[in-house]
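Recap for those who missed Tuesday's class. We walked through two folding examples back to back. For each one, the amino acid string is listed first and its predicted structure tokens come directly after. Nothing is annotated here on purpose, so try labeling regions yourself before you check the end of the notes.
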Amino acid sequence: MEEKKNGATEKNVTAPETTGQPVSAAGAEDEKAAIDQARKDLQKTIQENLEKQREMIREANAAIAEGKGKIRLETPITVHETEYKELEYDFTVLKGLEYTDAMDSDPNAVNSFNITKRQALALFAKAAAKQTEGLDMQDIVGEIGMTDSVEAVEIATLFFNASRRAGRMRISKKP
């Protein structure tokens, strides 16, 4: 036996039954106008959301290019009963020994031209700890959530690679 759903069967797909009341031309025009307005409102909302996303991307790219910025944490870090919902970072204030400490954080790293994820996380944590009173590198590395660490690693990796390229431009042959 065929099952009916909304006035249609599997073999006979038809529109559901109506109330039998005729729809006036004015009612149809009003409905069409309401649909058109809803479509325009939706397009405007989508356009506004896209512009907000573009602005956030521009801001993130500028922060990465400058080597400093902040990251809003999806999972707050709690250390000594203090909750941190965002971390400011500034790679440009790190000193050489802080950089080498971060790079030495991964004993399995073998290629000095690439940065491992562990090294990148340590580098980010060093840069963030210098900007956040009450936190040190170990607090950040130990408490940062997985999705936040993905962003932190990406930020540090991009900064590391950009710095390496820029450094090559400052090297010259001794006359």
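Example two. Treat it independently of the first, because the proteins are unrelated.
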Amino acid sequence: MNIYEDEELDRKFEEITDLMGDFILDVIRMSLNLKVTRKKINYENLIFRELNDVRLEAAKEDIDRKKEPEF
């Protein structure tokens, strides 16, 4: 029997290569999503820090005026 003429083997090879292609595309898509997620987390962290700095300054001003800080 010649393996190059076996239709079932041919279909299995095609299925395997299709699955490998899907897997590679999924890995690429996941890595791109991770990059976007990291950028989003860094951006949100920056915004939180800026907001926290503003609140801290306001609290310091309230303390200087001998007033209760508003949190």
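Answers for example two:
The helical segments are 7-64.
The chain has one helix and no strands.
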